Each structure stands twice: as structure tokens, then as C-alpha cells.
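Q: I have 509 residues here and want to know how they pack in 3D. Can you give me a structure?
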Amino acid sequence: MQHLQHAAMAAGEHVSLLGKLNERIKLSEEYKTKTENMIHRILEQHAMWRAQHTAILEVYAALGGWTKDAAQQVVAAALPSLQRSCPSDSSAPRPTRSEQIVVLDGPNQVWDRDFGNSEFQDQVPHPIEREMSQQVIADESVDVLEDDDVMLVAEEPYPGNTQSSQQPDSRSSLGRQFARSQLARMSARSSEFDSPSFCSGMSADELGQQILTDLDRIPDKEWETRSRENVRPAGEAKSLQKTLGFFVGARWHGIPMPTTDTFNFRRLTGNILLYARQLGVGEATSIQVTKNLCTRPHRDVNNRGPSWIFGLGDWTEGGETFVQDDRGTEEHELQEHIPGIGPKGKVLRGFKKDIHTLQQFDGTKIHCTVPFKGTRYAIILYAINRSYHETPALARALLVRLGFNLPLHEFEANMQAEDEELAGAVVEGRPEADEPGRHPPPTDRPRPLKRLHEDTEEAAAEPQAPSAAKPGQPAMALPILQPVFRSPNEPEVQELWSDSDMEALKDLK
């Protein structure tokens, strides 16, 4: 009898040990997967650095055609501006929030990397958005501390790791000014290709057909963009797609803001959201609309996972969205080496989702488009994750009025009745003036610089007339990108720098 009891106890211990061993194996597999993803991301970043290195060498080779005298003149002229923009003793840039690598605990959070604008959805800024953000910065520059840095990240001014750019109150105020200025500039703007009206009272089938008709009205030239290079098929410089709703970019200093197309296509945006609600879409902050785009395998690492997709059009023979899942029954073979995804020939397991009906998937997992024939519009609704708590109240009010079901969150700025009234006016297309004291910059000359030092009433230096460009040198136009502050001991500088001048300076750096 005792032998039987001992045998039963031993069997129980073996089962317990086997269970623990299986748990350890599962945990090891999770760490293995996360480690592989980490390696892929490192390789992806390495590939991007190599591409940047190649581009730098090309610029260097192009500069080889300059004469020594011409190069010396440009460098000498650039030196005062560079000194003003780098007030510290060290010439090395200080690390910013946009340049960090963080190692997190646990198998579910191993890497979290952020390399400036490379992870801001790879979005090419609309010129008017850049102009608006620079105008607000210029108007509010009197409140910026003297030692603030402005780092150029992917051709965009981005705030350095300074006191004013890190303070919640400062960023909340900046976001409010951004949203107010954007609303005033864009309130009455609309694309001629926007939907004729907001559609209500239609069935889901009728509304879907109306949206398809409206999408077909938009010419390809209006769709073209260089944004989101990571999803474009290899060798293609442009793709046909639009982003509606919130976007996080360097041009808005990392604060979520509505895209320009949200204003230009506000009726189309509202109709898509109405149709999405009828289909059963959940929370979302943004919409990606693509036309005939066969996306490469990629991850949307900066978004929250849950995404919804549906399609419109007459495409055939494919067009499904493939989503990686180790439990999947379908396979997708990589046709090229993709950094962070895998080498050419690697086979991914997962599921193909037919987007003729609404489908939900995890956007942080590898996904792509199965090749197809015909016209295919893919409409993806998702929620941003980066800096969502900093979203200005006025911007949220606008998207709610358009029909977005925004995720709940504890925001830094609370929505007021005035925000809802202004948002309603914008949706209806009524022009709204900006706040008193802020005016659009003149088109014929740059805005005068605001002075910061001491209690002086001296006006900023007036810009001089542009001088003729010498052969072999860039033309000196006058529009300025960003206000530059001087120390009290520095002499007055009369000439301001143009966009082309700044590009030349960045190339020289």
C-alpha cells in the first residue's frame, strides 16, 4: 500500500514538474520571439542609417563641384547663424526625447525605440501645416526660454530636451495655439473633390456606394504622396493614399493634430465615419484611405493594436489583408528583404482577411496586401498611441463633431463649450478668425524676430533687401524658418536666412 502511495506522489510531482517545465519553455519562446523582433528592429534601423550615409556621400560629392572660395564664403556667412542656434559651449547636440532607446521589463515590452521623425509615421508634411506651426512658434517665442534648442529632425524643426518643451503647461498651451491657428486657417478651406454633402438617412449599402462614387471623383494627382515609404512597393517613389483625423508629426512638435486633408475632405471624412459606425467599427482617432496600394509587409508600431479595415471597389483575384499569426493556416513568402521583417524567401504564417466585409486585426503585427487586379480602396481606422494625452481640446472637439469615436483618456486639456462651438462652425464650413493678436505672416518678407533679453524696447532688426546671388552660390531669398535668439553680447545681424539657405547649411553640417 505504501508503495502505491509513494508511486502516486511521485507521479504527481512529475506532473507538477512537467507543468513548470512547459511554462518555462513557453516563457523562453516568448523571450525568443521578442529578441528576434528586437534584432529585426536593429537591422531595420541599421539599414536606414546606411541609406542616410549614402545620401550624405551623394551630397558631399555634389559639393565637390564648388570652388574653394565659394564654399568659404558660404561657411563664413553661415557661422553667425550656427552660433546663435547653438548657445551652449559644446557643439555636440544634446539628447532629446526624439532620440532614445529604452529597455523595458517583461517579455511583452522588450524594446521601445524612438528615432525622431523616422517613427512619426514617415509622413511628408503639407507646406501649409509647416507654415502654420512656424507662425505659432514665432508668435509664442517670447515665452520660450533663452537656452532652448531647436533640432532639425528629418528637415523639421523639433524641440530639444529643454525646460519649455518638456513642461506640461508649456506643451498644453502650445497645443492649444496650434489647434486654434490651424482652425482659423483651415475653417473655410475645402477641396473641390470633397463629397458634395454630409450623407444621412442612407442605408449602409447606399452610403457605401456614395462613398465609392466620391472616391472615384478624386484624381490620382490629388492622391499622390511620398509618405509612408515603408508600405510602398519596392522601387515606387509615390503611392495613392490619404490620412484623415489625427497625426503625430515633428512639424507639430509631437502634439497630435488633424491632418490638412481632414479639413479639405471633411464631408468625405464624416461620411466614412458614418458608414464605419453602421458596419460596427469601434474606437479610432485616424483613417488611412489607400487607392490601389499593395502594401509591403510592415508593422504600425506607433498605433494602438486594434485596427479595422474594409474595402470598396471592383477588384478581383486577391486583395485580402494578410496578418501574421503563428497559429494561422495561410502562408506569405517575402519577395524581398525587408529590415525588421525578414530576408527574401522567408515564409510567414497567418490569416488572409477578406475586406469586402469589415475585418479587425492587430496593426502592431506584420501585415500586408495580397496582390489584386482592379480598383481597390482600402479604408483603415485605427487609434494613435504616441502623445495621445497631449491632444488639444479643440482638435478633439473637431474630430468628435465629424463623427470619430475617440478612445477615452485622461487628457491634459479639458474640452470647453467654446471648443465645441468652434468645431461646429468648422464642420459647417464657416470661416473663423484666429485669436486676437495673431496674424498671418506677410508674404513679401519674413516676420520680425521677437527680442527676449532684458527689458528693452528695441525692435527686432528689419530684414534687408535680398542681394543678387553670385555664380555658384545659392540665391538668398528671405523667408525664415524659425526665430533665432541672440545672447546680449552678440552684435545685431540684419540679414535673415531663407529656406534654401538653411538647406545649404544643413548640407554643410
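Q: Anything worth noting?
A: Residues 2-63 form the longest helix (62 residues). The chain is about 35% helix and 15% strand.
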